[in-house]
Amino acid sequence: MSASLIRFENVSKAFGSTVVIDDLNLDVRKGEFLTLLGPSGSGKTTTLLMLAGFEAPSGGTILVDGKRIDDLPAHRRGMGVVFQNYALFPHLTVAQNVAFPLQMRGVPRGEIARRVDAALDRVQLRHLSSRKPSQLSGGQQQRVALTRCLVFEPKVILMDEPLSALDKQLRERLQLEIRELYRREGLTVVFVTHDQSEALTMSDRIAVFNRGAIAQIGTPADIYDRPANRFVSEFIGETN
Ligand code: ADP
């Protein structure tokens, strides 16, 4: 049983009078691939944004390695973020895109070059390092975004629907690649999707969200074979 790396304790989030997350308790274990799965509007992204430090909870506490997240400056939280709209800089090459966050942080030039090369090697993109994003396919762009996140050596990678803009074939290939990268690098991943099959294929555990609360959390087999309630059985039943 792995230790808990992140803990949500009685976390709530409201926008105005609308409660979006209601008394959420959730552990992310070190080294696991945890997926937040649920229909649109169920609070998955808001949960991820609070973890990334982009949104503050309205109530409750988020702990990272036992420390309150709001006591940690953003660069000490160890979170790497990959979103659906990968937002690469169009005027920079692949290598410059990956190097950019390291430059911003004042990492010495020689070390940047070494880390960028190593990161591009790991995802087999080094041969594309002098291309511009517009010269890459959607899948390659998403891989560059993932690489830019990996150069930080984050404790946790947060991914919000990273594959939903891609066609089915590419999506399935990248699902395998991300899963393989996760395994090889010993990462901890929190992955958001509304796609039941994607969650069932990729995850160690799945937290099924319904209206800002967790309807069930468990392994894909738990969720698929032993849904805890009607919401989960119907939502998973939509898988084809
Ligand atoms: P999901 O990722 O599951 O689709 P979200 O976390 O994006 O769900 O959204 C949950 C609910 O919170 C939705 O009803 C959404 O409209 C609302 N919401 C999200 N962000 C804001 C915001 N900045 N202001 C007001 N409402 C928001």
Automatic annotation (TrEMBL):
Listed GO CC annotations: ATP-binding cassette (ABC) transporter complex
Record field: transmembrane: none
EC number: 7.6.2.11
One Gene Ontology molecular-function label: ATP binding
Alphabetically ordered keywords of this record: ATP-binding, Cell membrane, Membrane, Nucleotide-binding, Translocase, Transport
Superkingdom, natural source: Bacteria
Domain ABC transporter: from-to ranges: 6-236
Biological process, per Gene Ontology: quaternary ammonium group transport
Catalysed conversion reaction: ATP + H2O + polyamine-[polyamine-binding protein]Side 1 = ADP + phosphate + polyamineSide 2 + [polyamine-binding protein]Side 1
Keyword Isomerase: no
Job of this protein: Part of the ABC transporter complex PotABCD involved in spermidine/putrescine import. Responsible for energy coupling to the transport system.
Record-stated family: Belongs to the ABC transporter superfamily. Spermidine/putrescine importer (TC 3.A.1.11.1) family.
Summary of subunit composition and partner proteins: The complex is composed of two ATP-binding proteins (PotA), two transmembrane proteins (PotB and PotC) and a solute-binding protein (PotD).
Full protein name: Spermidine/putrescine import ATP-binding protein PotA
Organism: Palleronia aestuarii
Phylogenetic lineage: Bacteria, Pseudomonadati, Pseudomonadota, Alphaproteobacteria, Rhodobacterales
Gene name linked to the record: potA
